[in-house]
Write the structure tokens for this entry.
Amino acid sequence: MATIQSSIQLYDGMSPVLRKITNAMNIAMSSFEDMSKASSQPFDTAKLHDARRQLNEAEADVNQLEEAMERARKGEEKLNQSMAQGNKEAHGLRETWEKISGTLGMAGIAVGAKEILSGANDRRAAGNTLQGQTGMQGDSLEAAKESMMNLYVDNMGESLDDVARSLSTVYQITGRTGAGLEQMTRAGMLLQDTFGYEVTESMRTAEMMEKQFGVSGAQAFDLIIQGAQAGLDKNGDLLDTINKYSVQFRKLGFDSTDMFNMLINGAQSGTFSVDKLGDTIKEFSIRAIDGSKTTQEGFKAIGLDANKMVAAFGTGGDVAKQAFQKTIDAISQMDDPV
């Protein structure tokens, strides 16, 4: 900064001097030209014209110098304004950070306003990533950028770009914007940090549960967390099981809580994999309504009317759920349920 100011001051001092010299030379050249016209004595006009050309070039150089100095002066003013604005922005970011975390020291993050300001390029690049991957514009984009900063300030993600990519993934899968986008991204990133689930997979699973059972995103994530804590993901197939078999549970009239309770009960009873439990429900839901000879014989063997049971399972909802419970009760009363 001092270099710019010193240079401007230096050239500002030179410019008037150079201007005086060229003015003086102009007067001298004009006098020689007048003398050449008025005098009968011969002058070397070629040299006189060459001197005039050089003087014109010198004047042009002085003009360019003055214009350059004016541009530099204006540039310096803009730079000062930008830096002042940057300091205000950094101060605002710091206040936001401290409001969320209490103090930077308590949060264990040694990042000051200067360092935040120095990361402006990262913020700009992350914003470009967000816009490029989502196609968002206007208010939606600005809200997403604000969410990006909120999540990063809350110690989410390895970098601003990492947060931007997670936000983009959630937007692409759910179509959410604003506060909903931030909340879902936060939940997805927390699951990633805690259980190692990729944001893409956990988001697809939550969307599947919303679609099949009508639960909210927050409820879906709560159930996933509870299931993982209960040991349902010991084989790494919990999310895949939910995605594959949610529709089958719904066909039998079960809601999301019923599904997880059944998976937990099965796992606690010694079932090796929740995928096997889901597949069992799938096979039952198919056979219960296929009207085949073996289905008819199966219902007859446990003392139930096959036609009524097939109709009940085909109705779905609570009717199908009651029919399922009736089937389980009938099986449990057999001397040899297997």
DSSP finds 16 helices and no strands in the chain. Residues 45-101 form the longest helix (57 residues).
